[in-house]
Amino acid sequence: MPPSLLDQLTISAEKSTRTKAGLLVTGSRVVVNLPTTPVRYLYSGWQSWSLTAWVNVDRPVRPMRPSCMHPMQADPVYARETRPNGSWYGAVELPDGQIVFIGALGLESHVLLDGNSLTGWYEGQEVHNNPESSAAIPVGGVSPASSKEWFIATGEEDEIYAHYIEILGKQLGKGRERPTARVWCSWYSLYTDIHQEQLLKILSDLGPFDSPQGLPFDVFQVDDGWQVNVGDWEPNEKFSSGMDRLAAQIKSSGRKAGLWLAPLLVVPSSSVYRNHRDWLLHDNHGALVSAGFNWGQQLYALDTTHPAALDWLSNLMKRIRSWGYEYAKLDFLYAGALPGKRTVNMPREAAFRNGLKVLRDALGEATLLTCGTPILPSIGLCDGIRIGPDVAEYWTSHRDDDLLMNSAAPGVRNALRATLNHLWLQPLVQTDPDVAYFRSRQITLTREEKSLLQDMAQICNFKASSDIPAWLTTSERSALRTFLENHPRVSKTGRTTFQVGQHSVDFGSSLDLPPLPGFFTNLQGAILGWLANRPALMKLFNKMGKRLLRRRLRKNPV
Ligand code: 9PG
User: What is the pLDDT of residues 262-295, one digit of tens each?
Assistant: First the structure.
């Protein structure tokens, strides 16, 4: 009998144990030498929006543009690495179709392919508390023991994942068993242009939850746009009746009230930034760590080991609970896991988990959906994870594909690609593919593209939409209703193919990364990327975008 693929690997590690499923090896740095040159590599994105995909090894993935977005779209530590690499786990496909997989059992770990060798390592920070700090941090039980362990396996992808997820579940825990909610979310029609009257009109047009005409959304989720500022989580002047009043009105339609927050972020114009600079994440030189750029502003992160910041976070969650919100979409959570110097010296993903645990505990029985979140570090501490970038009313764009080479930007193709490659997480956590569209107004997606999104929602068993009832035709409304009510039987029939109820769907090659741009396109892209790194210009784009949105919504009243 020829030796199995696992036997053909030369592995350098401190310790190695054979199990039925593969190898358990120990080492802060583990090198796997492959018998042949691989053809494809599995990129594992750090957070919800990061690139997660199988990519041909001869198709280099260049650093995304603009670089000011690196902290919010990739793991900034590795954002400029051009060799195939990814967070916590990685895999290669050999010419004969066999897979070699290496996955960490702990956090702060990374995998990289260099020629024929696959290397996995743990980031080299020691776990010890700052003796000068008296902070009481709930370390026990929150983070997995950092024993520098890895799971190595070969063979068929889904079988490998099944074993890996079982081990991860033991290390990180599992989400609570609860039925997935069907969610109406305000973001993908109204964006930040929301106000109480317009949301109440939509709520009324959705109809009562359990009436024959009503659309059976279990949750009505208010997204970005209700707050005074990112960091000042009080209702702004567009919600003058108060968030508690709105929650009560949502409840009286038979639905749960849901609310979006980005609790770990602050912008310079917020009061937390002005009054509590010491709560923010700093680097070793005492400068603030950038958490990216959005809303025309620089973003900063809370230090989730700072006791006062943790108290503030806990009180914030209790406040939204007391307003009546039973579903929280906590967004931009990667901010808590950025590299930096913390009040309590601990590895960055462990620090993030401490923060998430505090948020989770304060939310009590409320459902917690994490978004823009480091994937593995969220497992066990939330009910659902957004597993891809944002969808949009379009499939993709020349700007994002060719000029910016940005695979984390909003767009249905980017979203489906990452979602497809994260489905293996399903045994441990609800997987959110983002919303599906049914409308034909204010959209350039084709029927087939919308149908791929709808099928993905059924596959994920996570159904959400942002369609405005007044924008839907009678038949679109009834298709949305059927989508919400039906639970088609789903089975995976191939690497990218599924049977969803009566029909089959192939996500296949339509989700491949676009070809690399040629010289002149790349040059244009470099200029655009440079411009996009100028805050003043980004501010201007943001203003123009808002104006355009308002005009569009005036022409398409809710
Ligand atoms: C609200 C939105 C919605 C959405 C979230 C998140 O890379 N980016 O620039 C980027 C910006 C925003 C974003 C995702 C990525 O969207 O995913 O559902 O809640 O925030 O602001």
Answer: 999 999 999 999 999 999 999 999 999 999 999 9
For residue 463, report the distance from its CA to the centre of ligand 1, in Å: 18
Ligand 1 mutation target, pool 49, 72, 190, 533, most atoms within 8 A of CB: 49
- Which segment of 127-141, 462-476, 507-521 scores lowest on mean pLDDT? 127-141
Question: Would you state the pLDDT for residue 181?
Answer: 84
Nearest CA to ligand 1 atom 21: 224
Read off the tokens for 162: 């099944």
**Residue having the nearest C-alpha atom to atom 1 of ligand 1:** 224
Q: How far is CA 380 from the centre of its chain?
A: 15
- What distance lies between CA 239 and its chain's CA centroid? 28
Is the pLDDT reported for residue 235 higher than 50?
A: yes
- Cα 129 to ligand 1 centre (Å): 34
Separation of alpha carbons 372 and 142, rounded Å? 20
Please name the residues in contact with 267: beta carbons below 8 A apart, sequence gap of 6 or more: 229, 230, 231, 273, 295, 297, 298, 299, 300
**Which residue from 75, 185, 187 has its CB within 8 A of the most atoms of ligand 1, so it is best to mutate?**
187
Q: Which ligand 1 atom minimizes the distance to the CA of 191?
A: 1
Domains of the chain: 5-44+88-172 (no CATH), 182-555 (3.20.20.70)
Question: How far is residue 355's CA from residue 137's CA, in Å, rounded to a whole number?
Answer: 9
Do 313 and 302 meet the contact criterion of CB atoms below 8 Å apart? Answer: yes
- Give percent of the chain with pLDDT exceeding 90: 92
Cis previous bond, 66, omega within 30: yes
| Residue at 288: amino acid letter | L
Mutate to test the pocket of ligand 1, among 48, 371, 407 (most ligand atoms within 8 A of CB): 371
Phi, psi of 102 (to 5 degrees): -135, 125
Mean pLDDT in residue range 424-450: 97
pLDDT-derived band of residue 475, with 50, 70 and 90 as boundaries? very high
Asked if 418 and 388 count as a contact pair (C-beta separation under 8 A), the reply is yes
Task: Give the residue among 329, 334, 437 at the shortest CA–CA distance from 376.
Answer: 334
Q: Which atom of ligand 1 is nearest to the CA of 73?
A: 7
**Which residue of the set 223, 303, 383, 390 is catalytic?**
390
Please state, in angstroms and rounded to a whole number, the distance separating the CA atoms of residues 162 and 175: 17
The kind and range of the H/E element at 325 are strand 325-330
Kind plus residue range of the DSSP H or E element containing 297: strand 297-301
Segment 19-74, tens digit of pLDDT: 999 999 999 999 999 999 999 999 999 999 999 999 999 999 999 999 999 999 99
pLDDT digits (tens, 9 = 90+) for 77-115: 999 999 999 999 999 999 999 999 999 999 999 999 999
What string of DSSP letters covers 54-67? EEETTS--PPPS-G
At residue 177, the pLDDT reads: 80
Output the six-digit token pair for 134. Answer: 């008296």
User: 545: number of CA atoms within 13 Å, CB side?
Assistant: 13
Mean per-residue pLDDT, 214-224: 97
